[in-house]
Amino acid sequence: MSRAASRLALNGGLPVRDRRLPLHEPWFGAEEIAAATACLRSGDLGGDGPRGKELERLLEEFFAARRVLLVTSCTSALEIALMISGVGPDDEVILPSFTFASTANAVVRAGARPVFVDIEPKNCNIDPSRIQEALTPRTRAILPVHYAGMACSMEAIETIAGKHGLLVIEDAAHAVNAGYRGRPLGAWGPIGCVSFHETKDMVCGEGGALVIRDDEDLASKAEVIREKGTDRSAFMRGERDRYSWVALGGSYVLSDLLAAIALEQFKKVPEITRRKTEHAEFLLERLAPYGSLIRLPVVPEGCRPNWHLFAILVDPAHRDWILRALKAEGIGAAFHYIPLHSAPFALQNPAIPGIQLPVTDRVAASLIRLPLYAAMTPRDRADIVNALDKVLNEVAADV
Question: What are residue 227's DSSP bridge partners?
């Protein structure tokens, strides 16, 4: 390697890439274009159309679930989940702080209080021992988040929930086609919520699904809520001669246009996971020699990850500089969540008491997401390693 190539781009050297490698890129092809075009030509654009019904059927088979309802986002699924659970004012829901705002928003919208607990440092998932410590007589539910498509300790969480009569609602936004102990994530708790957002593995732009494992009463309530609080779905099945407003609800039904795209994406999910796993295994192998400077992802025992994200942990003192250096080399690396317990809304909300979550804070200050997506090429992933080689050698020289 020439001196110009080995010198950091931040210091005037040649970058590893002339064109930036994005953090994520959906894997679309002619199939999605054809499906969207056919839907537009059919005139069946609204919700609960033929494409949406077919996707719901396939997802019910995939999750071995009584019902899967397509919704406008995983955020919508979380909101419906809290509504059908009966959680309300004076209730508490335990969840990690290291997650997206939607997880906590659903709790607050239900009138309940989010109780943030710390995460396990090995995989950034909620720590079951901290759940146990946070229990009070007001606790009604546990909301685990499967970060990066890595499974939470669901057996331990289910044990706590069963002992105390709590509902488990899985935030499986990251976890389409990830599994634990042979069961898909999103189908462990009575309710699961998944995402088809443009940054996820199965993409339709904006969309998601609510997974009801086996409770028909929960499924019936969810069906009404997502259809503006009406019994229109039963009417469309011929079970009513008219439909009317029967409960509080919202407009949560996914359009058939987006369902058409999601249906084609679902067919590609096995190949998407295969490609991402191949890329992740390459990164794990090639980055292993830097173990003194970075901590690589750890797959929990019994977990089959989908490798939604590839996140490394570095010394917090170097994290922001490493991000700048990688970007200068043409690698679209990024940090992730600002923990919710330290976010402005939580700090300004008297109903959310202040709390110390040292593991969460340390992880948030240390984490770097590296590009990982199905459409990446062998050259792309080699560029990630080459850029990190330049950057981490500079870090090592300063340590």
Answer: 251
122 is annotated as an active-site residue: no
DSSP 289: G
pLDDT at 368: 98
| Element (DSSP H or E) covering residue 167 | strand 167-171
Within-domain flag for 3: no
Do residues 340 and 116 make contact, with C-beta atoms less than 8 angstroms apart? yes
Q: How far is Cα 234 from Cα 223, in angstroms, rounded to an integer?
A: 9
Same domain, 251 and 279: no
Question: Residue 248, class by beta-carbon neighbours within 10 Å (0-12 exposed, 13-18 middle, 19+ buried)?
Answer: exposed
Q: Are residues 245 and 380 in the same domain?
A: no
Q: Are 337 and 343 in contact (CB under 8 A)?
A: no
Query: Which two tokens mark 107?
Result: 């709790």
Q: Angle at the Cα of 124 (from 343 to 369), degrees rounded to 5?
A: 80
Q: Is residue 11 part of a domain?
A: no
Count of CB atoms situated within 10 Å of the CB of 239: 10
Separation of CA 158 from chain center: 20
Measured CA to CA in angstroms, residue 375 lies from 16, 56, 289, 379 at distances of 19, 26, 26, 11
Residue pair 163/146 in contact by the 8 Å Cβ criterion: no
Adjacent-strand bridge partners of 94: 115, 142
Q: Are residues 246 and 283 in the same domain?
A: no
Is the residue at 43 inside a domain?
yes
pLDDT (average), residues 57-73: 98
The CATH number given to whatever domain includes residue 128 is 3.40.640.10
User: Under a CB-based contact definition with an 8 Å cutoff, are residues 257 and 39 in contact?
Assistant: yes
* Least-confidence region, from 184-188, 234-238, 333-337: 234-238
Residue 2: its pLDDT value, please?
Answer: 47
Residue numbers of the domain that contains 71? 30-263
* Res 124: pLDDT: 96
58, 54, 46: which is closest to 269 by C-alpha? Answer: 58
Q: Which of 53, 122, 163, 200 is catalytic?
A: 200
Question: How many independent structural domains does the chain possess?
Answer: 2
Can you tell me whether residue 341 is helix, strand or coil? Answer: helix
In a domain, 9, yes or no: no
Give 399 or 130, the one with higher predicted confidence. Answer: 130
pTM above 0.90, yes or no: yes
